[in-house]
Amino acid sequence: MNNTALILGATGGIGGEMARQLLAAGWQVRALRRGAPPSPGSDNITWLRGDAMVRADVLAAASGCSVIVHAVNPPGYRNWNKLVLPMIDNTIAAAQASGATIVLPGTVYNYGADAFPVLQEDSPQHPATRKGAIRVELEARLERSVAGGARVLIVRAGDFFGPQAGNSWFAQGLVKPGEPVRTIQSPGAPGVGHQWSYLPDVARTMVELLAMRSSLAPFARFHLAGHWDHDGRQMANAIASVVLQATGHAPKVKAFPWWLMSMAAPFVATLRELREMRYLWKTPVRMDNARLLAVLGHEPHTPLELAVKATLEGMGSV
Fold this sequence. Notes:
By secondary structure, the protein is of the alpha/beta class. It has helices at residues 13-24, 55-62, 80-98, 130-145, 169-174, 199-210, 234-247, 258-264, 269-276, 290-296, 304-315, and strands spanning 4-8, 28-33, 46-49, 67-70, 101-106, 118-119, 151-156, 159-161, 183-186, 194-198, 219-223, 227-229, 252-255, 286-287. Strands 3-2-1-4-5-7-11 form a 7-stranded parallel β-sheet, with helices on both faces. The chain has a 3-stranded mixed β-sheet with strand order 8-10-12. Strands 6-14 form a two-stranded parallel sheet. The protein starts with a strand and ends with a helix.
């Protein structure tokens, strides 16, 4: 139960935010990275060179840790069938060797139409996509790992956004990082609600749950309510409001060009994978956070315009 955590995927959006939040809460943080690490001591993270696909690297990095944050994902949604399950198997092996708690940022991919529109932690998992089936198997392996000495904390959230969100619909679909916001592209069908989650709020929730991990079930799952965009227009309106206040000019809101993605998908793997998830923009999917509220007593929640402002500033868009 020491306060040393290993983060896999610390250069990504949720992994990086978890590193910042854990450090702020007094944790010692290690991070595994394939490339050369930053200069020593520049961010108070102990960077270790290694690969999440190499079990020996993960085992060595996790030695002596009480928590492993599994926030690593294949870049650009590519090669899920080859990378996702081997990586979680390595994390499970490391957690069982050290008795650590695995923290997994969860998704809605592992749910299908029979669980919509309101998702609870124990709703049936009958996914409609290949990535969803992989997530179901990933979580099943985590649940089985408890018998071997691991502990598991899964926190599911909606689409991420935040100052360092990396690959996200906000940064790749709605606006363009590093450019003034002149147009906002809305991926959702008119009137269809969508759930968003602000990365700092998600990470803060995980850190608060970790502080009470000894009292949680060995396999614990929680849903975040995040920001519920009830008609698919609130996020675009918040972006427009922030941009107007910052620049004096209101950006236009346009429909996302799904037709263009369909044309390019056969030639671009990332677009092909993104198109597979279009169903989540055609139907409202919302998470019930009653279990989280019963255990934690609250859900960290930054007001939408403040969260959007910080996100756009972090992206260099205002």
